Amino acid sequence: xxxxxxxxxxxxxxxxxxxxxxxxxxxxxxxxxxxxxxxxxxxxxxxxxxxxxxxxxxxxxxxxxxxxxxxxxxxxxxxxxxxxxxxxxxxxxxxxxxxxxxxxxxxxxxxxxxxxxxxxxxxxxxxxxxxxxxxxxxxxxxxxxxxxxxxxxxxxxxxxxxxxxxxxxxxxxxxxxxxxxxxxxxxxxxxxxxxxxx
Amino acid sequence: xxxxxxxxxxxxxxxxxxxxxxxxxxxxxxxxxxxxxxxxxxxxxxxxxxxxxxxxxxxxxxxxxxxxxxxxxxxxxxxxxxxxxxxxxxxxxxxxxxxxxxxxxxxxxxxxxxxxxxxxxxxxxxxxxxxxxxxxxxxxxxxxxxxxxxxxxxxxxxxxxxxxxxxxxxxxxxxxxxxxxxxxxxxxxxxxxxxxxx
DNA sequence: TCAATTCACATACGCGACGTATGTAGAAAT
DNA sequence: ATTTCTACATACGTCGCGTATGTGAATTGA
Lengths: 198, 198
What we know:
Strand content of chain A: under 5%
Number of domains of chain A: 2
Oligomer: homodimer
Low-confidence stretches of chain A: none
Shape of chain A: elongated
């Protein structure tokens, strides 16, 4: 076991705190989660927390950034696997709906994030999912597949639709059935973006 | 001045507390708002609050119900003025986007509401806006204007899209310009619901 | 009309959680 | 080897929620 440098130790501490916070925030919500409990589970104290993240919101910010980055990566992979065309965008959107079913994502990124950190597009992580959807839309507009509308606006509305679909699915007693309906409605809505041959 | 009955007095205190809470929650957010300050501004104490609403969440629930009812009424009027067809649905959606620009609506109903009360469709007020949009969609499906998809799903996604559009507009430095883009994108998306002559 | 009761609200208290100020041990620097 | 620095721990003050208890005015019943 090689001796660890100080910077490595600090990275490890940050990682442990973020991991504990992810669990606590997902299970109890940001407001109800106790910093004492949270840090204790990571084998640390609140001192480490305030030293590394400034305050409770700073920790939430770090957790959200990590989750958002993971989500963007996953959605990108799924979208790319479905191709660079229209199907890619649909796959991304559906992937987003399905990811939003995970309690961690829903509670932290979709509910507490906007409530306590404000508008997602202002986050340091820039909301990777949103950014990625926008790029996909831009590409499809350039391809002539999607009609020339503001790509930022389109990405916003698509992500918003997906988010609410996920909230609905998650709260339903029969998630599988509701998920199918949500995906169908999402496909229908998204088709409104298609260039009409008119 | 007629003497007031006890029930009338109680209604008045409830109204005063809700009014104070609307201001406080809108300005500071639910989590940061202090019940002591809130009740003091209404000329009361926390005693009245806990007697009438049970706890802090109960007060938020009451505020959200009131706002939601007002929003549904306003959107209904605007939609009805635009007719009972496709334009009615579009008008409702745009009205929803514009209402979501008001700090009271955005902060309380769209951000803190879901975060602290859970899924909007589970609220006692049943989320009037959502309910109304669904009815409109159902009517248009019956008319053959909208293709036969699950109306609940469609209403959910439309409202979700409108919400995120509003968050975007509100956070932008040039709301007027961004609002126009958002409305355009919303119209495009919504057209995906139209029945195709395929 | 008057005593008894109810109730809407105020007051008082305890507890938990956040943020800060201070302490400390070990690594880094010279 | 001494000094400095820093990543964390410890200790403290404060604030806000929820509850338990008190009180005066309105209501009830005879």
